[in-house]
Amino acid sequence: MRIGHGYDVHRLREGRKLILCGVEIPFSLGLDGHSDADVAVHALMDALLGAAALGDIGLLFPDNDPAYAGADSLVLLAQVMEKIRERGYEICNLDLTILAQRPKLSPYREAMRENLCRVCGLEMDQVNVKATTEEKLGFTGQGLGMAAHCVCLLKESVR
Ligand code: MG
Predict the structure, then answer these.
(1) How remote is the CA of residue 30 from the centroid of ligand 1, in Å?
(2) CB within 8 A of 21, min separation 6: which ones?
(3) Is-above-0.90 flag for pTM?
(4) Distance from residue 140's CA to the centre of ligand 1 (Å)
(5) Do residues 34 and 72 make contact, with C-beta atoms less than 8 angstroms apart?
(6) How many C-beta atoms surround the C-beta of residue 27 within 10 A?
(7) Pair 152, 91: CB distance under 8 Å
(8) 3-state DSSP assignment of residue 27
(9) Is it the case that residue 33 has pLDDT exceeding 70?
(10) What is the Å distance from ligand 1's center to 106 Cα?
(11) How many A from CA of 18 to the centre of ligand 1?
């Protein structure tokens, strides 16, 4: 088995959609970035790449490459899954934590899990999505941005 951890941060600003795990969430602010800035999927991809010793998403999808401007992070996740499978690994489980002061994310949690299951080819009991505030402390607490952590476990595929 191989463990991986991923971490990502994006700023919040006006005039952007808020997309987390591919779910568009109604909110006055959205995450800023070159792609759709889906901070949760970015942390997940880095956890997968980390577990497989395949580098990170900055290496795979450079943020100065116009090909990834406005990119749907779920499409990028599908490409990461291809690489994981090519290396002969499959996912045991993944556990994602989103750090956000607002909005309340629990109403969207199941839709987020379903998106991750669909793209990664997993069952619901292999995918956990959690959200927490940081008690108004730091940049997430002050509503300046959002962060996400993900851990995943990979195992060698049975062929
Ligand atoms: Mg990112």
Answers:
(1) 13
(2) 38, 40, 41, 96, 111, 112, 113, 115, 116, 129
(3) yes
(4) 15
(5) no
(6) 16
(7) yes
(8) coil
(9) yes
(10) 22
(11) 13
Q: Say which residues have a Cβ less than 8 Å from residue 24's Cβ, sequence separation at least 6.
A: 17, 18
Which of 45, 41, 154, 5 is closest to 90 using CA atoms?
154
Tokens 């619901």 — which residue? 124
User: Which residues are near ligand 1, the ion (C-beta closer than 5 Å)?
Assistant: 8, 42
CA atoms within 13 A on the CB side of 2: 19
Residue that the structure tokens 């991986």 belong to? 4
Predicted local distance difference test score (pLDDT) of residue 106: 97
Q: Which two tokens stand for residue 115?
A: 């998106």
> What are 86-96's pLDDT values in tens digits?
999 999 999 99
pLDDT at 153 over 70: yes
Whole-number CA gyration radius for the chain: 15
- pLDDT (average), residues 88-116: 98
CA distances from 152 to 5, 118, 127, 149, 155 (A): 7, 16, 9, 10, 10
Going through the chain in order, the beta strands assigned E by DSSP cover 2-13, 19-20, 23-24, 30-31, 89-99, 127-132, 145-156
